[in-house]
């Protein structure tokens, strides 16, 4: 038989990840009863893989903050309750006063998402108060660096220069910290969204409202402060945005679809925005002719507002993206690097090349038929470059878990190890820690050093305990 590489894909493959991004200034309100439209739960054609949700003006009163410190805040709990039955797990979150950023992913993607850092950047009150600023989650997604930023910039028409200063400040502060994280401008993808508070210049209130009424947005776009800034600032110009084919999302009377009718009568504006920036890829000419260019591209599928929600003076905005990752190109790249390492005559590779992570670091297997009568034996193998820790653990979860701490039971890998040989390890879970239910379960391997899930099993069932029941003839019969 020919030698088979167990890590090699059986056929050329690529992966398209669908990411749904939401930004909403919720004006300290509680979640409404139905967010299906915002989360696009009624759109069966989307087949989403990740949710990225950014909220501004969360209730940050003293009692609310104390409660949210001890328990999940109402919005996080709401999103977890809605998304967990659909196999979405909360991967990470970060909060700074009224700013909240949440990342959810379907469970099969967990071994390929590594949370690198979470960060808060206050810019209010001379940079010390977190009512304005940004929160950031930096992660590795299938081997690529992705930086996600939710921000709330200064309000009012006259503060445009201050908004741009805060934008730059948030960007610069991403580079303060760990030395093993690339400069944020070297990240493969930046998703930046929030209540940016940019306004519409020059035109009066009557003209703006009539233009909105007649759906004539072109003149308003030209005077949008963010669009003007992008025409003048080369760095800001690198951030892309979809077309604004929806009416301005601020400012509305609460519990209505009417723009501001108060005495101030604030002028409507597109304050709520979603931007993205892809790192410039090396030219194809820098690769060998036989080597495909690793494919990492982002395309916008939709960019819309959700006008039916009236709890806030802002309307939420969402963007749905397709992220293309070509695993087959990554495999050829890995082969090319191996050839280079073993043959001195092979031309040197471009230093920017890197293989995409397309296999999990840990492969989990449950042994045989699992029942609640015996200890469960778990086998797992690891990739050669994985460094285990005595603090690593394997969790047993019910399918539909909300987050990684939602385990039914767990074991320390080192303490419960049964055997280890040729890259195959075995641990056990005591029968006393196995619930007797008809639910489906998952196993997750959590790496303490990487602070991330690095392996996940397929769903399975655990057979309940056999109970002996006497029959009418007095003979004991097994019953499940």
TrEMBL record:
User: Which Gene Ontology molecular function entries are recorded, alphabetically?
Assistant: inositol bisphosphate phosphatase activity; inositol-polyphosphate 5-phosphatase activity; phosphatidylinositol-3,4,5-trisphosphate 5-phosphatase activity; phosphatidylinositol-4,5-bisphosphate 5-phosphatase activity
The main location class comes to cytoplasm
**Which positions fall inside the Inositol polyphosphate-related phosphatase domain?**
15-329
Instruction: Check the record and name the InterPro entries matching this protein.
Output: Endo/exonu/phosph_ase_sf, IP5, IPPc, SKICH
Q: What is its EC number?
A: 3.1.3.36, 3.1.3.56, 3.1.3.86
Q: Which GO terms describe its biological process?
A: cellular response to hormone stimulus; cellular response to oxygen-containing compound; negative regulation of glycogen biosynthetic process; negative regulation of insulin receptor signaling pathway; negative regulation of phosphatidylinositol 3-kinase/protein kinase B signal transduction; negative regulation of RNA biosynthetic process; phosphatidylinositol dephosphorylation; regulation of transport
Localization recorded for this chain is: Cytoplasm; Endoplasmic reticulum
Q: Could you tell me which SMART domains the record lists for this protein?
A: IPPc
Q: Which UniProt keywords apply?
A: Cytoplasm, Endoplasmic reticulum, Hydrolase, Lipid metabolism
Which Pfam families does this one have? Exo_endo_phos2, SKICH
Q: Which GO terms describe its cellular component?
A: endoplasmic reticulum; plasma membrane; ruffle
PANTHER family in the cross-refs: INOSITOL 5-PHOSPHATASE, INOSITOL POLYPHOSPHATE 5-PHOSPHATASE K
Q: Describe the task this protein carries out.
A: Inositol 5-phosphatase which acts on inositol 1,4,5-trisphosphate, inositol 1,3,4,5-tetrakisphosphate, phosphatidylinositol 4,5-bisphosphate and phosphatidylinositol 3,4,5-trisphosphate. Has 6-fold higher affinity for phosphatidylinositol 4,5-bisphosphate than for inositol 1,4,5-trisphosphate. Negatively regulates assembly of the actin cytoskeleton. Controls insulin-dependent glucose uptake among inositol 3,4,5-trisphosphate phosphatases; therefore, is the specific regulator for insulin signaling in skeletal muscle.
Regarding protein family, the annotation reads: Belongs to the inositol 1,4,5-trisphosphate 5-phosphatase type II family.
Instruction: Fill in the subunit field for this protein.
Output: Interacts with GPR78; necessary for INPP5K localization at the endoplasmic reticulum. Interacts with PAK1; competes with GPR78.
Which protein is depicted? Answer: Inositol polyphosphate 5-phosphatase K
């Amino acid at each position: 038989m020919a030698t088979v590489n167990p890590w090699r894909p059986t056929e050329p493959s690529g992966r398209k990840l669908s990411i749904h991004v939401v930004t909403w200034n919720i004006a300290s309100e509680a979640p409404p009863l139905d967010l299906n439209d915002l989360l696009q739960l009624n759109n069966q054609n989307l087949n989403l893989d990740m949710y990225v949700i950014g909220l501004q003006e969360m209730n940050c009163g003293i009692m609310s903050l104390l409660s949210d410190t001890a328990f999940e805040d109402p919005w996080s709990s709401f999103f977890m309750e809605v998304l967990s039955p659909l196999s979405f797990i909360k991967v990470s979150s970060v909060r700074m006063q009224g700013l909240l950023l949440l990342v959810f992913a379907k469970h099969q993607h967990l071994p390929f998402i590594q949370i690198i850092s979470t960060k808060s950047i206050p810019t209010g009150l001379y940079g010390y108060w977190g009512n304005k600023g940004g929160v950031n989650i930096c992660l590795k997604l299938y081997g690529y660096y992705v930086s996600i930023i939710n921000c709330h910039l200064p309000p009012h028409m006259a503060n445009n220069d201050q908004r741009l200063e805060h934008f730059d400040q948030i960007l610069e502060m991403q580079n303060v910290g760990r030395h093993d994280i690339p400069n944020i401008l070297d990240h493969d993808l930046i998703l930046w969204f929030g209540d940016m508070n940019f306004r519409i210049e020059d035109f009066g209130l009557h003209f703006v409202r009539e233009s909105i009424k007649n759906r004539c947005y072109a003149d308003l776009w030209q005077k949008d402060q963010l669009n003007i800034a992008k025409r003048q600032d080369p760095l800001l110009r690198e951030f892309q945005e979809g077309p604004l084919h929806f009416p301005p999302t601020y400012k509305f009377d609460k519990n209505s679809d009417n723009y501001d009718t108060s005495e101030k009568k604030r002028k409507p504006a597109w304050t709520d925005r979603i931007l993205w920036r892809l790192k410039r890829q090396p030219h194809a000419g820098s690769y060998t002719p036989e080597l495909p260019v690793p494919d990492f591209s982002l395309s916008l599928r939709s960019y819309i507002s959700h006008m039916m929600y009236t709890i806030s003076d802002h309307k939420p905005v969402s963007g749905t993206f397709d992220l293309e990752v070509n695993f087959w190109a990554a495999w050829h790249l890995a082969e090319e690097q191996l050839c280079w390492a073993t043959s001195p005559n092979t031309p040197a590779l471009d230093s920017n090349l890197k293989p995409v992570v397309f296999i999990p670091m840990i492969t989990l297997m449950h042994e045989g038929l699992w029942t609640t009568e015996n200890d469960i034996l778990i086998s797992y193998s690891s990739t050669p470059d994985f460094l285990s820790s005595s603090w690593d653990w394997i969790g047993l979860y019910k399918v539909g878990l909300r987050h990684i701490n939602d385990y039914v039971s767990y074991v320390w890998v080192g303490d419960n190890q049964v055997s280890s040989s040729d890259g195959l390890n075995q641990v056990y879970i005591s029968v006393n820690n196995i619930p007797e239910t008809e639910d489906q379960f998952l196993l997750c391997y959590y790496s303490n050093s990487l602070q991330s899930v690095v392996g996940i099993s397929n769903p399975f069932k655990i057979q309940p305990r056999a109970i002996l029941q006497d029959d009418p003839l007095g003979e004991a019969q097994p019953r499940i």
